[in-house]
Amino acid sequence: MKALVYLGARQLAIEERDVPEPKADEALVRVEAVGICGSELEGYLGHSAIRVPPLVMGHEFCGSIVRTGADVSGLSIGDKAIVNPLVSCGTCDRCRIGRGNVCRNRQIVGIHRPGAFAEYVAVPAANIYPVPSEMDSNLASLAEPLAVCIHAVKLGLRPYEDLLVYGAGPIGLLTLQAAMTMGANRVLVVDRQPDRLIFAKRFGAEVATPERAEEARESLFGARGVDTIIDCVGVQATREQAVRSVNPGGTIVAVGLGQDQSLLSMNHVVRQEISIVGSYTYSDEDFEQAVRLLSQGKVTGEHWSTTCGLEEAIGVFAALADGSAKFSKYIINLLEGVR
């Protein structure tokens, strides 16, 4: 089979690899569509310590089941399926209290085991969600990042309240859509790229560049300010601006992993009793809800996402890295005429 392999910083290559053999509790999935995640771009740039080359990345994907292990039941050959790439052990203390997303022994497809930037991938059968055959595969591949956003929104936003989102990339736009479905009132999205802000405006948000963020925040929220900020960027500038922008007693949900370390005005955080909450991946419930929202057509990738082939993806990574990419989201198609 063909696979796109990460070989080191800014190094990707198409290689021929053996089709994986599923274990007794696994299924073999023929990949149809797989999204390029911002975290994989960080890996491509050599900024992700957990992605060790040579590695087949890819964790946002949809495909069809072509083989099942001896102990697998409830799945059929030919089923279209979305895969939850987060593999929790189910037995550690975190799993036992329902916090499988921070499982002490967690693995992620495309990081700790071969991923979906390949024609076939073997995954635990328990992580497979069958979906209708007519569901668009490109849309289905958004389930994983949408689950990330649902989890983040739940950690900070109360229904019918206002929200500020930093970032209009894929996670920012999906966070916006998730927040809207969960009852957000007014939403302000801040991003450096005006083209990305056009997409956010289409989904009902007010938008601003960082230079106009304070003015836009005061204009939209007035003296009430904003109690919840979700940072989908995660760099010094957005983290510090969030700390300075949120109301006293407010909550900042940190999703973005753009920078490992940041200097923050912690005395201000203490004196204003600001909560900074890390948000990592999702629960099984969040993932199921993401699949349901996509199946119901309540979240879309139209206008802000596009597709490419496996070979083309090498150039797409380069374009994303240098800022010349025209779309927020790129989805790799591995089948002709994929839907």
UniProtKB/TrEMBL annotation:
Obligatory cofactor(s): Zn(2+)
Domain Enoyl reductase (ER): 8-332
InterPro entries named among the record's database cross-references: ADH-like_C, ADH-like_N, ADH_Zn_CS, ER, GroES-like_sf, NAD(P)-bd_dom_sf, Zn_alcohol_dh
Classification via SMART domains: PKS_ER (SM00829)
Domain of life: Bacteria
Pfam family, one: ADH_N
Record key words, sorted: Metal-binding, Oxidoreductase, Zinc
Family: Belongs to the zinc-containing alcohol dehydrogenase family.
PANTHER family, A to Z: L-THREONINE 3-DEHYDROGENASE (PTHR43401)
Annotated protein name in UniProt: Zinc-binding dehydrogenase
